[in-house]
Design goal:
Elements lengths: L5 H7 L32 E2 L8 E11 L4 E5 L5 E5 L8 H4 L5 E6 L10 E2 L4 E4 L8 H16 L7 E4 L4 H6 L1 H7 L5 E2 L6 E9 L20 H11 L16 E5 L10 H11 L2 E5 L5 H9 L3 E5 L15 E6 L5 H13 L3 E6 L16 H4 L1 H6 L2 H10 L7 H17 L4
Parallel strand pairs: 3-5, 6-10, 7-8, 7-10, 8-9, 11-12, 11-13, 13-14, 14-15
Antiparallel strand pairs: 1-2, 2-3, 2-10, 4-5
């Protein structure tokens, strides 16, 4: 399930203008340059240009007191104060209600070096791991991908200050954090001392859901770079979906346990094998590494729209993603995987089921509004759409109709041998 309220549907199409400045480089000056002109003042925080997140940049002598939830630039030319929640769903009150607020401020007061219980000569990033991160898709779109986009440029020399420290979740993605930072994660709320840094960014850089715009990314990072990073983080060996001469292409079927299940999974497996695939059926577990290895060993991933398709990040480049879109005019939510998969260098195939392939036909008469007026159902709000088309619907693929999709996918993988 991807809990995306209507406000976020609009947000996905936005083009925020948040930029990441280059890492400041040391400048060696001669005697004649010793009098450096003061930098032009700019606001510490930007609450307007990015529709996903409020973010702040503090350069100079920055003091962070975790327990008090304050980030302070001392010795500044101007005093100001902002309050931000460092999580990229700022238009979604439900996502933001448990996100801790951070006070960002500057002061003209002189610095007191005795205040620093710890001083680092590397930058720090402040972010929250609350919101929707319990959903696998949102874990990537709201933290993992923005963290890569923001932190990768530092080559590990950056400290992560976590404002809503959930060890059960952080532990799940610990290999990612260790790949991006050479330092231990800091639990801000439990840190009752002052840490000092030369630069702090509050709030991660975000472009849009599950997407990177290389034109605005440091080092022109792309989604291809992100997938390479994820494969390296989990030590995955396959970088290209090129089957060996003596093996069949492998198809991974994402088996959902509760909603939007394939109710004729055995038939799908049988037909896929006849087409020429070796077939793996898996839902995955809480542990990421084993499923990442499974996905990377496959060439094609097949699943009904849902968070499980996020595992496409582990597929080798030039693999194939087949997204099955349930009944109910859900093409707009299918977009959360459509463009990202292509940006990852994957072939994308979208299969929209017919009415007869939905188990909703077992629950409602043919003239029910769920079939005749899906727009009316959706007009009642996200909860109405979710209950009708995401929570109550399973899929029974018509294999005569679906078989050409499997043939197209296997033909693509076999053609990779010729490239």
């Amino acid at each position: 399930m991807l809990p995306v309220p209507p406000t976020q549907q609009q947000e996905t199409m936005a083009h925020p203008v948040q930029q990441i400045p280059p890492i400041p480089m040391a400048k060696h000056t001669g005697p004649e340059e010793s009098a450096v002109a003061p930098r032009e003042w700019k606001p510490l925080c930007d609450l307007a240009t990015n529709r996903r997140i409020d973010w702040c940049e503090l350069d100079g002598d920055v003091r962070v007191h975790g327990a008090q939830g304050t980030v302070t630039l001392v010795g500044a030319a101007k005093a100001e104060e902002w309050r931000v929640k460092p999580y990229p769903r700022k238009v979604d009150a439900n996502a933001m209600r448990f996100v801790r607020e951070i006070t960002v401020r500057s002061t003209t007061a002189a610095a007191d070096d005795d205040e620093c219980a710890e001083r680092r000569d590397v930058p720090a990033l402040v972010f929250s791991d609350r919101g929707y991160v319990g959903n696998y898709f949102h874990a990537y779109t709201d933290v993992i991908l923005p963290l890569f986009l923001t932190a990768k440029q530092y080559g590990g020399e950056v400290v992560f200050l976590v404002s809503d420290f959930q060890m059960w979740w952080l532990g799940k993605f610990l290999p990612v954090f260790k790949s991006l930072s050479n330092y231990d994660l800091v639990d801000l709320a439990a840190d009752n001392r002052t840490r000092c840094f030369p630069r702090v960014q509050v709030g991660l850089t975000c472009h849009s859901d599950f997407s990177i715009d290389p034109r605005r990314a440091p080092n022109a990072y792309s989604m291809l770079d992100f997938t390479k990073f994820m494969r390296a983080t989990y030590n995955l060996p396959r970088h290209l979906a090129v089957p060996t001469a003596n093996s069949r292409p492998r198809l991974l079927i994402i088996a959902r346990a509760k909603t939007r299940r394939f109710v004729n999974a055995d038939e799908i497996v049988r037909v896929a094998r006849k087409v020429g695939f070796e077939v793996v059926v898996s839902e995955g577990t809480h542990e990421i590494a084993p499923f990442a290895e499974e996905a990377n060993a496959c060439d094609v991933m097949l699943g009904v729209h849902g968070a499980g398709l996020t595992n496409m990040v582990f597929l080798p480049t030039r693999g194939v993603v087949i997204q099955v879109v349930p009944l109910g005019g859900l093409e707009f939510v299918a977009g959360y995987f459509r463009s990202p998969s292509r940006d990852m260098g994957l072939e994308y195939i979208e299969y929209r089921i017919a009415r007869e392939e939905s188990t909703l036909t077992d629950q409602y008469p043919p003239d029910h509004p769920i079939f005749t007026d899906p727009d009316g159902v959706k007009s009642k709000g996200w909860d109405s759409l979710k209950e009708a088309y995401l929570d109550k619907q399973d899929v029974r693929l018509d294999m005569r109709r679906f078989r050409p999709v499997l043939k197209k996918a296997i033909a693509h993988i076999r053609a990779n041998k010729l490239q």
